[in-house]
Amino acid sequence: MKDITPPQLAELIRQSRRVVALTGAGISVESGIPDFRSKGGLWERFDPWEYATIQAFEKNPAKVWVMLKEMDEILRHARPNPAHYALAELEARGHLMSVITQNVDNLHQAAGSQNIIEYHGNAHRFVCLTCRGHWPRAALDFDQTPLYCYCGGLIKPDVVFFGEAIPEAALYKANDLVINCDLLLIIGTSAEVAPANILPEVAKNNGAIIVESNLAHTRLSLYLSDYFLQGPAGRMWPLVLEQLKQITTQ
Ligand code: APR
C-alpha cells in the first residue's frame, strides 16, 4: 500500500468512471459523534454485547434505551462536516456514484448526497419490532422509554443491531455497486464488522482500486488497500475536492 496525496487522489478520481464511497463512524467524528472503537469511543463506555445486540434490547429494553437516548441527544445536535459536504459535491459533479454508509446519523443525507445506501439503517427513523410499523420521532416520548407500539410491540430506532440482518435492498445494492465500481473510497472505518467489511474485498476481486482514508492503518491496509490518504476526513476531503475542481476546469 502506498500513501497518496490529495492532488494524486483527485487525479485518480478524475480518471475513474464508477467511483463508490464506503464510510464509517470516522467520517462523523468531526461532527461531534464519537466513533466506536477509537480511544474514548462508544464501545469503551457501553459494552456492545450488553447494549447493541437485538437479544439485549429484547431482554432489557430499558437498559439499552439508556445508550440509545445518549446517542439520540448527540445525533440531534450533530451537523454534517466538510467531509460529508465534499462527498455530496463530488456526487453532484459526477465524480461519485454512491455512498454506502455504515453510519446511522443521517449526515450524508443532510449534506446533500443523493445516492446513499443506509447499510445499517437510520437512527432518525423508528420501527416496531412486531408489526414493523414506522413511527415518526415526534410521536415518541423519550421520557417514557421503553416505547411500545399500539400493537404492543417494542419500538426501536430503525438501525441494525448486532444479530439483525442488513436490510435486503441495502445488501444487494451495495454488493452490486462494489462489484461494478472501478475505484472504492473507504473513509473512516476500522473494517471490523461484517458484512460491511466484505465489500472492499468484493470490489478488489472485481478489479477496483482501493483507497483508504483514515487517521491510522486498519486491517485492510495490511493486504487489500492500494493507497492510503492519511489525515482527518474533515480536512482531507475538501482538499481532494478543491484539487479536482482545479484539474477539471482547466
Ligand atoms: N477521519 C478519518 N478517520 C477517522 C477519524 C477522522 N476524523 N476519526 C476516526 N477515524 C477512523 C478510526 O481510525 C477508525 O479506523 O474511523 C474508524 C472508526 O472505526 P469504528 O469506530 O470501528 O467505526 P466503524 O468502522 O464505522 O464501525 C462499523 O461497527 O459497532 C458497529 O454498527 C456499528 O456501523 C458500526 C460498525
Number of strands: 10
For the largest sheet, list the strands in their spatial order.
1-10-9-8-2-3-4
Shape: elongated
Bound molecules: adenosine-5-diphosphoribose
Distance, first to last CA: 30 Å
> How big a fraction of the residues is strand?
15-25%
What's the total helix number?
11
The CATH class of the largest domain? Alpha Beta
Unreliable spans are none
Average pLDDT reading: 97
Structure description:
- The protein is α/β, with parallel strands linked by helices and 250 residues long.
- It has 2 domains: 1-32 and 80-120 and 165-250, TPP-binding domain (Rossmann fold, 3-Layer(aba) Sandwich), CATH 3.40.50; 34-77 and 125-159, SIR2/SIRT2 'Small Domain' (2-Layer Sandwich), CATH 3.30.1600.10.
- The chain is 40% helix and 18% strand.
- It contains 11 helices and 10 strands.
- It has helices at 6-15, 42-45, 48-51, 54-59, 61-77, 82-92, 107-111, 168-180, 199-205, 219-223, 233-249; strands spanning 2-3, 19-23, 98-101, 116-118, 121-128, 134-135, 155-159, 183-187, 209-214, 227-230.
- The strands form 2 sheets. Strands 1-10-9-8-2-3-4 form a 7-stranded parallel β-sheet, with helices on both faces. It has a 3-stranded antiparallel β-sheet with strand order 6-5-7, covered by helices on one side.
- α1 packs across α11 (233-249).
- The protein is elongated and about 60 Å long.
- Bound molecules: adenosine-5-diphosphoribose.
